[in-house]
Write a structure and sequence with these properties.
Two copies of one chain form a homodimer. With 479 residues, the first copy, chain A, is α+β, with helices and mostly antiparallel strands. Helix content of chain A is 35%, strand content 22%. In chain A, helix 5 runs parallel beside helix 13. Chains A, B: It comes from Thanatephorus cucumeris (strain AG1-IB / isolate 7/3/14).
Chain lengths: 479, 479
């Protein structure tokens, strides 16, 4: 039994075509945030979003973020759209986040149709277009919900706060500072009880999920230098210490081919697996075949599905990305590179933090390097870091989303964690001190950031229903 | 006591200025073989060399080598200059090799003077210019020798065969086939008793050397592939096998940071060190400081001079050159590269050959890779190979050169081996089946291939004397 009124659900079904038209209008605005020549369209999209919100009863404000240097010119950052609906002290206040900018897309990249013309494939009932799933579909899902409530005269069961940005695909420039500045008594985010972000995807194409964790990261650049300039291996091979040899020795001590991190102390920082958690991974609607299919080869690290999913979601990983300064072209150059930088990163999970990880990593690299007994020099830099995020999936915010999903899809959602990071999640959690839920609308196969990005019509429509139902479930649960 | 007549030595001293003028005329022709727009000057230089040889009594022939594709156009390869002087059955027949082309050089590369104008620094008595030491000085040294003999009416004590090429700096295109075609009864190289190549350098700036060995090479490209495309380390780290991790593990098993090759069977192929040889390295006029100075850092692999010199000259080496296909730019990309190729080469010494080395290397790589228990795929390619060269330094060809050096410089020359390769050496040795001597004219600091290439005037003049005396020593020893 859905907590949402039947009229609401019926309205969504009845207005399918209008909702498609709304998405079509949004897709037509090429709001590519990473290209200065498209910046005017990002601003245009911000105004479009503001008008849509105002039309469904939300009081809005465009927050300017100042100028930005991009592609050799100074451009104005697109505004954050703040919105407010309801001030009822007896209701929970839900902050919703989405973004209205998109990744670049050109027909010549391999799109079947113009990426900025919404193309409805009637056979598969899929909606193709840049931004369909990332993130215009989910953003407009909220507008659809509010339109239905306004038109039907149904009172919204929660207070709503809106934060829609236009720079997510380009590092969310300016947003972190704004969130921190607007947290606290009397500020815009004052009174927010929970956050809902709809900007990720189901694990597969059939089972909805709620996401309660994200891995953090620590990125290292390890530089080893020897001779003052590159040497000829004929003249100096087996005569001097070679930085490349040293690097291969040191990096071979970082991680096993099975993904086990060899740096002492790191695995001990990982929170212990609970039986409840293990069971969550066992239950997940995902198979080894799904993993192999998504990477295009049978290379899963284990035959145990839960192990592989935990490797990706709840355990750290260490990946070597490349070497800067070595010979990297085609052909057969006989160089001894003078100075090289190997790069690797570690994905962090609770209770790892950049702080407690970095010192262990640097100490280990230095001690392994010392064992080599080489005359090369080692320096280690940390290029960037970010904490992991973990929400309580038993919080009413998640329970409401799970009940909404069950009501609409007739299925218990998987409780997943993401291997990568969505930095704004952590910013909200830290700045507001509330539970942050990731409630995806699209499927694993949607191809966000890729060519022929799509959103299944059923996900758009059912996703709209889930978002609305979720608000009613919150009101019901927390009453 | 020199075997050469005193008049010859006096003539060389007396004609210093004319010899400098000859070198100056040669330097003025920018015979850069690697650039199509300079090709006409290479041909011009070939004709210059022919005229010089004819003027001192050598019967010459320009051997065309056909067309070549270079910089998008078809150009004519510069001719090989063949020369013949003497057919006396009672004399030894000496084949001399040099090259008349040069490396590119532009004033803007950092030259102090125009690289194609011979600049005589009177304070240091050094002759600056592209080709001064590599290889126009040595080539003209032979012309100087022949001019002196002709003018003085001194009969040449040996028959001479000349092979001067114009493509050495660009892979000696066409020369190998010509040498093979002209070896054998009735052909141009028929009757050659020994070869003298003057195209390398002293180990340092004070002690002459003779070179009797060159290392060979085997170059490997090791490709490891996993996923069908590059992956995001957040999404797939610790979920699939990563080719980079595998490569670091395998390559860490190739060689120690001290230069010891770890591939079983390889070191066993190296000829045993004789006490006589060891003593040769102990005696060499070279120090650890010289090595550190030449590489610009204190990174010599040992404190034992002989060990370091043997590492470079008479033992194999293994150098890792780089990785193709990994992230190699600046910055912090979080990619799991899908397919990468690590490259390394082994410098070979007798009795290693590409044939007996390659199978051991490939077998070892495959067995080490199998131990990793990864699902990535491994392929090993051999990109190119070349045998090492070793002449008998007790052969009369070397003894004559040593006596000539002792007579002119008052010093026993060091007997050295080169860490790199000069392929034509091996071609002559294999095709003609005779002893090949490398008799350098210039010093270690000459900067062949570099900016401000120079030849010390004393090396040019004394080097000319050594070349002439060497011919007389041959006649005397082999009488």
């Amino acid at each position: 039994m859905s907590a949402a009124p039947k009229e609401f659900l019926d309205y969504v079904d009845a207005h399918k075509d209008a909702f498609i038209k709304r998405l079509s209008d949004a897709i037509a605005i090429p709001s590519v945030s990473g290209d200065a020549s498209y910046r005017k369209h990002v601003h245009e999209m911000g105004h479009f979003v503001q008008r849509q919100l105002e039309a469904v009863g939300v009081a809005t404000k465009l927050v300017p973020l100042g100028p930005q240097e991009l592609d050799g010119q100074t451009v104005e950052l697109p505004p954050v759209v703040f919105g407010k609906l309801g001030e009822d002290k007896n209701k929970k206040t839900v902050l919703i986040y989405a973004h209205y900018d998109v990744q670049p897309a050109l027909l010549s990249d391999g799109w079947t149709h113009d990426p900025f013309v919404l193309t409805h494939d009637k056979e598969t009932d899929r909606l193709y277009g840049r931004g369909s799933t990332d993130d215009k579909g989910p953003l407009l899902g909220w507008i659809n919900v509010l339109e239905a409530h306004k038109t039907l005269g149904i009172e919204l069961p929660v207070n709503l706060r809106v934060c829609f940005e236009g720079m997510e695909e380009s590092g969310s420039e300016g947003l972190d500072d704004l969130i921190k500045a607007e947290a606290g008594p009397g500020k815009f985010f004052d009174g927010v009880d929970c956050v809902c972000i709809s900007d990720n995807y189901w694990l597969n194409d059939v089972t909805p999920c709620l996401t309660y964790g994200l891995r953090g990261i620590s990125y290292f650049k390890v530089t080893i230098s020897g001779p003052a300039k590159d040497l000829h291996s004929g003249l100096f091979g087996n005569c001097v210490h070679e930085p490349m040899t040293d690097l291969f020795h040191v990096f071979s001590k970082l991680v096993t081919p099975q993904g086990k991190i060899l740096i002492p102390g790191l695995n001990e920082l990982v929170d212990e697996l609970t039986p409840e958690e293990r069971e969550r991974y066992e239950r997940m609607d995902y198979s080894i075949d799904d993993i192999n299919e998504s990477v295009g080869a049978s290379i899963a690290i284990s035959d145990d599905k839960a192990e592989v999913l935990m490797g990706k979601m709840r355990y750290p990983s260490l990946s070597i990305h490349g070497i800067e300064g070595a010979f990297s072209a085609a052909g057969a150059k006989t160089v001894i590179p003078a100075k090289i930088s190997g790069k690797f990163s570690i994905r962090l999970v609770p209770s790892m933090t950049p702080e407690n990880v970095d010192s262990l990593v640097i100490q280990y690299l230095e001690s392994e390097f010392a064992k080599l007994n080489t005359k090369s020099k080692l320096t280690v830099e940390n290029l960037h870091g970010g904490k992991p995020y973990l929400a309580d999936p038993n919080h009413w915010n998640f329970v409401a989303a799970a009940k909404a999903t069950q009501a609409i899809y007739g299925k218990q959602p998987d409780l997943t964690r993401e291997g990568g990071s969505i930095p704004v999640t952590l910013t909200f959690a830290d700045a507001l001190g509330v539970n942050v839920l990731l409630l995806p609308m699209g499927r694993g196969s949607d191809g966000a950031h890729s060519t022929n990005e799509k959103l299944d019509l059923s996900n758009y429509i059912n996703g709209t229903k889930v978002l609305g139902t979720y608000l009613h479930e919150i009101a019901k649960i927390t009453k």
